[in-house]
Task: structure prediction
Amino acid sequence: MPARDLDQIVNLCKRRGFVYPSAEIYGGFRSSYDYGPLGSLLLRNVKDAWIRTMVQLRDDVVLIDAAILGPPAVWEASGHLANFADPLVDCRVCKNRFREDHLEDPHVCPHCGAKDSLTDARAFNLMFKTYAGPVEGEGAEVYLRPETAQGMFVNFANVLQTTRKKPPFGIAQVGKSFRNEITPANFIFRTREFEQMELEFFVPPEDGPRWYEYWCTERMNWYADLGVPAEMLRLRPHDEDELSHYSAGTADVEFLFPWGWGELEGIAQRTDYDLVQHAKHSGEKLEYFDQASGRRYVPYVVEPAAGATRTMAAFLLAAYDEDEIGGEARTVLRLHPRLAPYKVAVLPLSKKETLAPLAQDVRRRVGERWLVDFDDTQSIGRRYRRQDEIGTPYCVTVDFESLEDNAVTIRERDTTEQVRVPIDVLVRELSERLGL
Ligand code: GAP
Result:
């Protein structure tokens, strides 16, 4: 059964080295997190799984990695300077600040309960501003990107020229984005610094609706294929009044978090909004000329925009389980092998020198192919539990018999079943079982 309580995951993440509060020795830094030895691997695997599906397995999508710092002109054109804001109210009594659209009762302060103490809403822009170069002030302002998407739009002409792609085609990017969120909350669900995985898919205008349907289905399948149970996933179309300033239609992929349904990804019909805006502001032509038909047009964009860090939280929550093995309680992360930080753990039964060379040889063979944890401390039972708790799909035990029969024992995380396998075919056997 998946985690019922966010604390189950927060504690496991801290205990096992997935995620730590940032700058913890200084008391932590609100809403910032550091990804530890296991968390950095898991996060990388989430991003790699996305790139594999969205780029590697397709012929119509290319990957870029654009700058995080951008000049105001980009954000002026995209509409973020004018529109990327939350409505904020202040309580005149307790002086706390809230998002108006998060209030349960617009007349009551959610902190101190005072009636009619809230000010009128003011728009608060969510972008982080800083200065480039040694002089602060006008002309030196730059912004940290609040989405990776604009990197794809401002590079549209570059990519078109250098790759010879033609619509329908996509530009993908994975990387950090920054938003000065008023209410960061729920662990890594909403933070000020986070990672996104976004695709801008450029299509002939009349094909927009068809590709929107296509990407809604594809994206739902991605989460399901990586092990999120169907009952924890849903696709929710936005109401008119929820739509972003650029969107002609959006649906959210939502996950059932312990506090209710929450967005993992938005799939939006951005129409030609961004290319038209950037063409207007930059003076560059951002259109496609179809030589075969002689037609010139500005492509429409369908955008599946997911959060990598938020999705990592969802994968952890969905994979979390507690069961009993031989009358003993255990915690197990039933992560998809593609996501698991370590695919295999090599566990010599004893630290004795007679076993060490063979154990190291097995470690080297398996480690050539996948990330491996090598652990020769504590009892074998405790080492299995530890690997279960961090989601390692297979443990390989090297014992004294291995010196005689040149074979090892593979133990499966989910069923705890064990099978003896010759070392010569170990990597092939693991590969078949992992599906990797
Ligand atoms: N380019 C469109 C765009 O950025 P979005 O819905 O604002 O759309 C896409 O963001 C995804 O990025 C969200 O579905 C979410 O997964 C992730 N995301 C957005 N803000 C976040 C935050 N403060 N913390 C963590 N993830 C966030």
